[in-house]
Amino acid sequence: MKVGIIQQHNTEDIEYNINRLCEKTAALAAEGAELIVLQELHDGLYFCQTESVDQFDLAVDFPSERTERYAALARTNQIVLVTSLFERRAPGLYHNTSIVFEKDGSIAGKYRKMHIPDDPAYYEKFYFTPGDLGFEPISTSVGRLGVLVCWDQWYPEAARLMALAGAEMLIYPTAIGWESSDSADEKARQLEAWITVQRGHAVANGLPVITVNRTGYEADPSGSTGGITFWGNSFVSGPQGELIYRAPADEEVCKIVEVDLRRSEQVRRWWPFLRDRRIEAYGDILKRFRD
Length: 291
Known about the structure:
The protein has 291 residues and is of the alpha+beta class. The chain has a single domain, classed as Nitrilase/N-carbamoyl-D-aminoacid amidohydrolase (4-Layer Sandwich). The chain is built from 5 helices and 18 strands. The protein has helices spanning 14-30, 65-77, 156-164, 184-205, 262-270, and strands at 2-7, 35-37, 80-82, 85-90, 93-101, 107-112, 118-119, 122-123, 138-140, 143-147, 169-173, 177-179, 209-212, 215-218, 228-231, 235-237, 243-246, 253-258. The strands form 4 sheets. Strands 1, 2, 3, 4, 5, 6 and 18 form a 7-stranded mixed β-sheet that branches. The model has no long low-confidence stretch (mean pLDDT 97).
C-alpha cells in the first residue's frame, strides 16, 4: 500500500496551513497514495506551550465546516485520510481527536487521545480530557488502522491493545520536539528514544508503524521558555522494526512510502509473540505499581 505522509512547519495562519495541507494531499493522491496521514493538531501552531482559556476558541465542533472540509478532501482525492483536530465536544469539554475519513468522505471512525502529558511547554492536561473511546482499530477500505496520538506512542499497552483488537498497522500523528534549555546530548537521547520505543511496538506486535511529526520552530507566546523546535523525523517502520523511511529533522516532507501489509503475517509466523503470551500471569498489569 502507498502511504502518504506530510511533515509540515505550521504558522499562526490556520487557513494558510490548511490550504497547504490540501495541496500536498492532492499531490500525493495524484502519485497514487491510498492512505495519507497528517501530523498532530495540524491546522495551527502547537498552542499547548501556555495555559490560556482563550486558546479553547481554536477547538471545532464535530461535525463542523472544518470536518466537512477534510471529508471533501478525502472524497475529492479518493484517499483514506487520518486527521488530528482539537475537538469541542461540549461547553468546557474538549479532546485531542483523530478523525479518519473514508474515500467517499464518510467518517470511518475516530480516536480520542488517551494519554495526556503535562510537562513544561506541553500543558495538554489544561486543554484535553482523556479519551473515552478505548483502543479500538478503525476499519477502512485500506485496512484496520490502530490510530493513536503522540504521547500514546510511549505506551506499549496502547500498541498491544490495538494489535489484540486486530489493527493491521499503528499510526501516530505527533507534535514533539526539543525545548530550548535541553543540552545537545539530551536532545539526541530524547529523539533516539522516541524512535526506538515505536520501533519496539512494531517488533512486539509484528505490525508496521507510521509516525508523522511536525517540524520547525514555534515560539512560546508567554516568553517563559525559548519555545519548541519540533524535531521532524517522521518515519515508517516495518513489522520487524526495520526503518523503511525516516524524514530529516528540519525540512518539510511530502512523501509516499510503500508498506507491505502481507509481511506482518509472515513475521508473526516467525516470531509468534501473541501465541506465547502468558495471559493468565499478567493480572498485575492493571495495578498502578506492584508494592
